[in-house]
UniProtKB/TrEMBL annotation:
Protein name (database record): Bifunctional chorismate mutase/prephenate dehydratase
Record's subcellular location: Cytoplasm
Catalytic activity: prephenate + H(+) = 3-phenylpyruvate + CO2 + H2O; chorismate = prephenate
Prephenate dehydratase domain ranges (all copies): 88-264
EC number: 4.2.1.51, 5.4.99.5
Residue ranges occupied by any Chorismate mutase domain in the UniProt entry: 1-88
Annotated source species: Chitinimonas lacunae
PANTHER family, A to Z: PREPHENATE DEHYDRATASE P PROTEIN, PREPHENATE DEHYDRATASE-RELATED
Main location (coarse class): cytoplasm
Function summary: Catalyzes the Claisen rearrangement of chorismate to prephenate and the decarboxylation/dehydration of prephenate to phenylpyruvate.
Amino acid sequence: MSDSLLQSHRDAIDAIDVEILTLLNRRAEHARKIGELKGGGLVYRPEREAQVMARVKALNPGPLSDESVAKLFREIMSACLSLERPLTIAYLGPEGTFSQAAAVKHFGHAAVTLPCASIDEAFRVVEARSADYVVAPVENSTEGAVGRTLDLMVGSPLSVCGEVVLRIHHHLLRNGADMAGIRRVYSHAQSLAQCHEWLNRHLPAEVERVSVASNAEAARLASLDPQCAAIAGDAAAERFGLVKLAENIEDEPNNTTRFLVLGYHKSAASGRDKTSLVMSAQNKPGAVHTLLSPLAEFGVSMTKFESRPSRTGLWEYVFFVDIEGHCDEATVNRVIDALRAKAAFVKVLGAYPVAVL
């Protein structure tokens, strides 16, 4: 390629960059005006963001991938939202956890992420209005439901207003160059389970596996002792300056965790939504079948069904159900009314856009 042709492409990029900068600031100005029209009220609208993301992906002609375009627009919307006041997002800390990665994926880097010592504390700071939203793990594709999040949602005044689906990659990290001399591996219990077969194949049987509160805490501990390693993700490796001895060591190649976003406001219908419910059946034969019959009657699909001890009585259970559609839609609303007529207890946990990124 000649120097003159190369320069012509660089000049074209420089000119386009000026256009992009101008358009970005024009978009930000409109976002600021919307905030002023709302009188400083709620600016974050999950249904609107979901619609924007779906639209730009549908309009994307390439060569950038849909995922790349969606990530760019997430950061643009995040920066525009922060013009008035950055959102504060509580998550299970410390820094470097997958929960923090999920918070950043959903809200962008302009949001302030607030690490908490437990999922309980993350809920409490939002309930006390010391943070705007909590991002909490609710289920993993290989290890199943996160029971503590489900239990907290039953009694919390917060509503589910969004979901995040995060592909989970685990790495073996160490403050050293190779795997020789490792005597202990730290990680969260679920991560140890998700990498169980890899550990069996690649580390001696005498290497101790120690469960800790989070993968980020595992990385911190490994950074302090050269005889220890950790299973954690990219953010924890970077945060604690650890070497990746092996990458993507999860046993299940499609290992994915689903997170829910909860806050004090409800999301309006976006056009592609889920509604999450928790309910309990009456204590009699066939009660669960009877309880779920309105879904078939009204033709509403169920995407999740999970039982948990009710914590109110021995051998009594509550059922967590996700259904397609928004609770404000007529058909879904009729289903919920029918469920209330049959169930001992029904609570709408929230309705929210299906994750697009």
